[in-house]
Amino acid sequence: MTNKFGIQIEPQLGFDYKTVEKIALEGEKQGYDSIWSSDHFFLDGKSEERNCMDAWSLISALAAVTKKIKLGTLVTCNSYRYPAVLAKMAATVDMISNGRLFFGFGAGWKEMEYKAYGIPFPSTAERLYQMEEAIVIIKRLWTEKRVTFTGKYYQLEDAVSAPKPVQKPHPPIMIGGMGEKILLKMVAKYADYCNFFLRPNLERSLEILKAHCKVAGRDYNELGKSLFAVGIPLFVSESQEEIEKYLKETAERYNRPLDQIKERVKQDAPGSWVGTPEDLIERFRYLNNLGFDYFQIMFPGYDESIVKTSQTFAELVMKKL
Question: In the chain, which ranges are E strands?
């Protein structure tokens, strides 16, 4: 199995653009397949002076300065932009990048952002059904000359959308989340990739997704499977002393007992997200056996130190997988 790795950026942590640009350019040299941005407006209630760049503005800028690395959103919140507008934005990024967009899509969850920005926050189920209508609209605008659509949440009348994406029939669609009844059904029906987190019920979720694929007439094995390697930002070292230092710093940052942090990075699967190359390789091999071959990695920090940690991961782990 050939693995692909991407670097996940969380603009809400306080990144500036030049830092992310350097991470992207260095990641491209290091052999990373992609760079991803989350889609948020701010981190928390104390973010008046903490940067949080817009995800689509960010990847648009990166599209113009990179040459090979793919660009994705992990994941775009449907509620934040009308589907027809988002379709045009995404097609534009695909054009700027000459076909390197990965369209990560989700229903949204961060209620405090909705409230602060005056965006309605309906129930989870309703947000998911809105998202389903949006997927239908976006795919049609990417592939059809004119679109008329009458849904419960969105309506289009004789809408045109140009440019069309460079990628045909459209950029790969990655749907993030693990909701079993509605979301995984949507993954089976519309997505090119699923995106999961590592959870105790991961294998159960995959079995449910497999059942949804059967009902939808999809080949489960042809559906791409990606996983966001997060919980505690990933850290690898051949030095046990460096690993211990990182765990202690993490415990202090999160104001948690050290033992709790150590348990957190090792729970839910064999191996670990923090440890020696062998620890991390064990975890990725376990995920390979479940069918995952695409991984988004969140490294510690929000500055140029990510260049070094991503390079270390590439040398000690990525190139051995």
Answer: 4-9, 34-37, 70-73, 76-77, 101-106, 147-150, 155-159, 173-176, 193-197, 224-229, 235-236, 274-275, 294-297
Is the CB of residue 227 less than 8 Å from the CB of residue 195?
yes
DSSP string, 164-214: PPSSSS-PPEEEE---TTTHHHHHHHH-SEEEEE--TTHHHHHHHHHHHHH
Query: CB–CB of 310/23 below 8 Å?
Result: yes
- Least Cα distance to 293 among 209, 210, 223, 218 occurs for 223
Residue 260 lies in a domain: no
Strand partners, 70: 34
Q: Residue 77: which CATH number?
A: 3.20.20.30
Query: Residue 121 in 3-state DSSP?
Result: coil
Domain of 96, in residue numbers: 4-135+164-239+273-320
Average pLDDT of the chain? 96
- Give the tens place of pLDDT for each residue, 273-290: 999 999 999 999 999 999
